[in-house]
Amino acid sequence: MQPLPSNLCPLCGGSNQCAPAVEGSFDTPCWCLSVGVSMQALVRIPADQVNKACLCPACAAGSCTDERGTAIPSVGKD
Predict the structure, then answer these.
(1) What letter does residue 47 receive in the DSSP assignment?
(2) Which of 15, 42, 51, 64 is most buried, most CB within 10 Å of its CB?
(3) pTM for the complete prediction?
């Protein structure tokens, strides 16, 4: 199995910094293996991108902004 060559975050559209996607191998360690990922971010991933694209570090931490720099609201917040 090889990682998909997707290098954009499905929430903000920025670089997801996914080393396995860049290298084409899951043998390459990735930043996401050593951090927690926000459940709020996970539930915001569009259904067609689940298991196909990785979040960027900011979105994974729950501090995501879109391409205009506007904060992407967390689930359950007004």
Answers:
(1) G
(2) 64
(3) 0.74
